[in-house]
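@channel anyone free to eyeball this complex?
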Amino acid sequence: MAAPLRLGIAGLGTVGIGVVKIIQRHADLIAARAGRPVVITAVCARDRSKNRDADLSGYAWETDAVALAERADVDVFVEVMGGSEGAARASTEAALAAGKDVVTANKALLAHHGQALAEMAEAAGLAIRFEAAVAGGIPVIKALTEGLAGNQMRRVMGVMNGTCNYILTRMETAGLPYEHVFEEARQLGYLEADPNLDVGGIDAGHKLSLLAAIAFGTRVSFDDVQLEGIGQISIDDIRHAGDLGFRIKLLGVAQVSGRGLEQRMTPCLVPADSPLGQLQGGTNMVVLEGDSVGQIVLRGPGAGEGPTASAVMGDVIDLARGLRLPTFGRPATSLVEAVPAKVAAPAPWYLRMTLLDKPGALAKIATALGEAGISIDRMRQYGHEGGHAPVLIVTHKASRDDISHAISRFGATGVLVGEPVAIRIEEV
Amino acid sequence: MAAPLRLGIAGLGTVGIGVVKIIQRHADLIAARAGRPVVITAVCARDRSKNRDADLSGYAWETDAVALAERADVDVFVEVMGGSEGAARASTEAALAAGKDVVTANKALLAHHGQALAEMAEAAGLAIRFEAAVAGGIPVIKALTEGLAGNQMRRVMGVMNGTCNYILTRMETAGLPYEHVFEEARQLGYLEADPNLDVGGIDAGHKLSLLAAIAFGTRVSFDDVQLEGIGQISIDDIRHAGDLGFRIKLLGVAQVSGRGLEQRMTPCLVPADSPLGQLQGGTNMVVLEGDSVGQIVLRGPGAGEGPTASAVMGDVIDLARGLRLPTFGRPATSLVEAVPAKVAAPAPWYLRMTLLDKPGALAKIATALGEAGISIDRMRQYGHEGGHAPVLIVTHKASRDDISHAISRFGATGVLVGEPVAIRIEEV
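replying in thread with the prediction:
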């Protein structure tokens, strides 16, 4: 049997300890599958005295991740610290400079520096693997980069932030407002230290930008992801969407059209009986659409010790087996600069507004929509309450601009109470 | 760029022509991803004059698959003819003997001869790849063999015959009996020439046996798959199962316990709101459960030109990229002979029977169940019709033997009309 593959693990949080546990528990199984033993030679974390749920006594200890990355007895640098700058970036660069392959769970690092790191790695004949960075335990990077490599990808979609999906699901099932469930999630420890990474869509946007690069052969361009969080989603909209047969998800969509590369991470309505609509709680889902394969749906845990460590180990075992690919599935130097689409593809829209209880109010709204070139698929008016009438409209396909234009016309009708809500309906 | 990878395609049916089309349409995309061109040098089918939906004029033509397999200008032999014996087997063996890698969509061939072929390939340093053989376009072999390689697998499940799922779905939605929908499916061309391959569960059983070998490191043992087709499923059971919150699926399950390796391809009830329960029509689904990752669900088209060709191309591009693994994820010589479980794991059961409208009839059945050591989770008695009362029972966990024992006791009560129906409820 070949020589062991020696890992240095930087970061002993949930994921790092998960990796340690798998390697300790399944040494024989991994060696049988990889064709060689996989061992840990050194680990790294700031605080050595902290009580951790694994026996680390057999490993050399570094307090500096760069020092770990440069150790002669490390073949693969496993970066599970997180953060797009600082120690994570410095140690990843140091590992590549020292001729080590890198396995990382760090979506922020790659979303911001993926192109430079991939070029650095590939110039040196090294691999950067990041299955754990996207959708936790779901082997989606592998499915997209390898399994579907014969396809021209049409669209990639995903619910890739479990915390947001938990919040939206809990709002729906318990009938609680956003602020209440946000606070619950915070107390349960589901939120990042900066909650905007979750609820603002940034974390999921990082992931989407990595999938888009692989799918479309473009340089990672996180800055071009249209980001909109879930903070404006009301329990009213969740209920009304449900009445119309939809659920609201923080949905990432990447697709290429004549308009360019579209990357959106925004709340969308999806049919409640679609796989995306049926996804409840913290589970993740990625939908991959290719010209030959049609639609593939992958579902699984998007976070947690076991699932994320499973993804890290998939990458590690690939490297142990000698399976090596360019970071984004083709040489980084061949990735093209994406032309960002200025406008998103047209879609049906969900509109909710409150009208004054005046004769002809609804007709004025319908007229304004027609004048903006938008046709109505379904409209529903609810019973009047205190002189106000809630109205729901599902439009036929329209651009975001057309919808904004229509909404500004609504304002001129004099029958509108407050601001209308407009949420895109993604056709899945 | 490296030298082209040269394919010889044996079989110009749906899948073979699908592969030709992808290579013709996406030559540049594939070369960019694979790092080298992928070209077809020769093809093979019996009837050259047949009109096929692709331009084959640029390829050498063989009428004998063995001759194709042995051509000096073929690097990879793509076997998409089908059949476990005859030309498929002979040409695959010839390809390996001639030092060619093999990509195949042939589940029957591998279910029957996988061990011998894998040993032959690995002794010569060659690869046999078969993503297209299981669940069509879903990259499940890759997910299981590579992505989840850090997991001890607990259970693998799947709905892997689209025709059966189409029939069961159509029976439910149209309220039509099995015989009627079977005939529809035949006329639509959904059924194999020997329909028992589909509705008898054989085709899906072949696939399950391949997944089990990878998941558990055991030799393929199709003969140990417990096979039961869908021919006995009645519209009554589909309706009653629905009333109880279940759907009936032809479900494959492979798992290892203290009893040994269990492989079943049988009709089962699954919760209607689970991913498996929600699967409608011809779509396939595979559920992979590992000790670290938890549950991963993969969903996609299980057949058809594009999806199956997509899977073939994933394997071809892997080979072009130099990604090579043992056929079943670890050396074939290290695979162990599975000890087949003599009895399946206990499960809840769905029982349906008709009782005579006599006082105490239901009590007698309940008593018989209790005497067989089976406790009742739910029981439902419907209105009497013509002196007969339909009764549904959902039991707590029981073995198949206990259920058979109870059913024989029912017979002795003298209140039973006809034979009871018993269907396992798989906990998903």
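from a first look: Chain A has three domains: 5-133, 140-301+327-334, 349-424.
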